[in-house]
From TrEMBL:
It comes from the Eukaryota. One of its GO terms (biological process) is nucleoside metabolic process. One of its GO terms (molecular function) is purine-nucleoside phosphorylase activity. Phosphate binds at S35, H68, R90, F91, H92, A122, S227. This is Purine nucleoside phosphorylase. A purine D-ribonucleoside binds at E208, N250. Pathway: Purine metabolism; purine nucleoside salvage. SUPFAM superfamilies: Purine and uridine phosphorylases. Keywords: Glycosyltransferase, Transferase.
Amino acid sequence: MTVITEETYKYSAEFLISKLPQEFQQVDLGVICGSGLGGLVDTIDQSTKVEFLYKDIPGFVASTVVGHAGKLVFGHLGEFRTPTVFMVGRFHCYEGHTMLQCTLPVRVMALMGIKSLIVTNACGGLKSEHKVGDLMIINDHLSLPGMVGNNALIGANIEFFGPRFPAVSDAYTYALRKLAFKAAFEVGISPNDIREGVYAMVTGPSFETRVEARYLATIGADVVGMSTVPEVVVARHAGIKVLGISLITNDVVRARGKDAKLEVMRELGLTDKIDTEEDTEKTFANHAEVLETSAMRSNDMQRMVIRYADLLAATLI
Ligand SMILES: O=P(O)(O)O[C@@H]1C[C@H](O)[C@@H](CO)O1
Ligand code: HPA
């Protein structure tokens, strides 16, 4: 396995800087586009944008998931033309990449000067009040892998980026969350369609079982996904402020599912012995539905991110 050291990050950043025009050698904002959400780069000034395929950047691994283009794009975002670097497609642990490989681009962005990062993702909603297509501003996360030994910062600490024991109890900056809601309302997103809550990370790639989904909801999660948290932890370690936006692309199964015993009792006419009625509702998560919902809502999310970038550029946060 390739060893990733401080030099690896610096080498990647120097490679990019050597190929970029002056205006993008230092960038202010980073954006990580989740499943099906890469269309944001079609909204930037196409005449100045510069693209690199991940496979051509030293240190980067390949992106293998449908809906993740696999390119790093530099461009001007919004009316204030904020110099921005976009990851169009991210790396996930379930692709077989380590946490260090998945988060390498965040440290490269840190070396290129970003002070602020927007992470977006597609996720499953765990709460009955969620609707498919709702947006959620992340206000906290629950890292299932991180809690059981797969934290993105495991290994020798690179002091150059940050301290051995960084605090992440306030990983999602309050002022940025406020700015994101302001941006959302200003572009016409209804308060009924955007929420604030907790993102739980699981590694995937299998979706949750029904009881896993109930468990996640019980321990405090509002939505569940397979990414984001490692990037956020590494960004916070490097002192980068983070805004997280989730798009609820599917309703995660919370029902108990069909009860085989009851069904057979019904079939044999033993109905007088049935004393409970089980919930038989069930749906199955699938990646096609995730991409379909992303496509449906990506326009709103793009307008919100553009407005947010302008509000951010106009403030001192
Ligand atoms: O990159 P994100 O977190 O948006 O991708 C989600 C999680 C899985 O990779 C995939 C499941 O459909 O979409
Ligand atoms: O239901 C889900 N579970 C986990 N990850 C996801 N990413 C999109 N939807 C889901």
